[in-house]
Automatic annotation (TrEMBL):
Protein name: GTP cyclohydrolase 1
Associated pathway: Cofactor biosynthesis; 7,8-dihydroneopterin triphosphate biosynthesis; 7,8-dihydroneopterin triphosphate from GTP: step 1/1
Nucleotide-binding is among the record's keywords: yes
EC number: 3.5.4.16
UniProt-listed HAMAP family: FolE (MF_00223)
NCBIfam families: PRK09347.1-2, PRK09347.1-3
Signal peptide range: none
Recorded catalytic activity of this chain's protein: GTP + H2O = 7,8-dihydroneopterin 3'-triphosphate + formate + H(+)
Positions with a binding annotation for Zn(2+): C83, H86, C154
UniProt record similarity statement: Belongs to the GTP cyclohydrolase I family.
Domain of life: Bacteria
Alphabetical list of Gene3D superfamilies matching this protein: 1.10.286.10, 3.30.1130.10
Gene name of the encoded protein: folE
Length: 211
């Protein structure tokens, strides 16, 4: 649990917010709303103060010479985060690729890195950059690419209410920031699991797809 999170203050703030919009926080249907919001914020903001680079480093295993230079691609990792502009959720899928250096990473660890960085007030553009940087630094990877495809409630549920709209962002480091390396990784993401398996996906799983 995020030790910085003050449940009492959250509940008091939610109660005040209900009063501010003209509601009665004491009516039976709303009595437990402040506590429920505090419960949800424990999850939404659990990544505040968490070192995502340390998570990546903790899941690293040494790679053999023959494994270096391969491309590891993990597709369709679901995530959720909270838009820092409106405090409304955005949800979607992440596609993660990296070119190993001296180390590989357990595939479950990649998901934990993503979750740690997503569990704080965020912008989608910054989320992708921070995940890429954490994996690159934690593994000393030759290159990392993160593609995020997300639906933002601040777009779908307010303003113009573009319910069918999604946002795609790409962040990359090292060799995967180069045009050729980026194109190869994006092509594999689009090609599907079969293509990714031929370039190291299954091999990485053999080295600790930790849950």
């Amino acid at each position: 649990m995020n030790e910085r999170l003050d449940r009492v203050r959250i509940e008091a703030a939610v109660r005040e917010l209900l009063l501010a919009v003209g509601e009665d926080p004491d009516r039976p249907e709303l009595e437990r709303t402040p506590a429920r919001v505090a419960d949800s914020y424990v999850e939404f903001f659990a990544g505040i103060g968490v070192d995502a680079t340390a998570i990546a480093r903790s899941g690293a295993v040494h790679s053999e010479d023959g494994e270096r230079g391969q491309l590891v691609v993990v597709r369709d990792v679901r995530f959720r985060s909270m838009c820092e502009h409106h405090l409304l959720p955005f949800t979607g899928v992440a596609h993660l690729a990296y070119a190993p250096g001296q180390q590989l990473i357990g595939l479950g660890t990649l998901s934990r890195v993503l979750d740690a960085v997503a569990s704080r007030p965020q912008l989608q553009e910054r989320l992708g950059e921070q995940v890429a940087e954490a994996v690159a630094e934690g593994l000393d990877a030759a290159g990392v690419l993160v593609v995020l495809d997300a639906i933002h409630q601040c777009v779908t549920a307010r303003g113009e209410r573009q319910s069918g709209s999604s946002t795609v962002t790409v962040a990359a480091t090292g060799t995967l920031a180069d045009a050729a390396g980026r194109a190869e990784a994006i092509a594999l993401i689009g090609a599907g699991v079969g293509a990714a398996a031929g370039t190291g996906h299954d091999h990485a799983a053999d080295h600790g797809a930790d849950a």
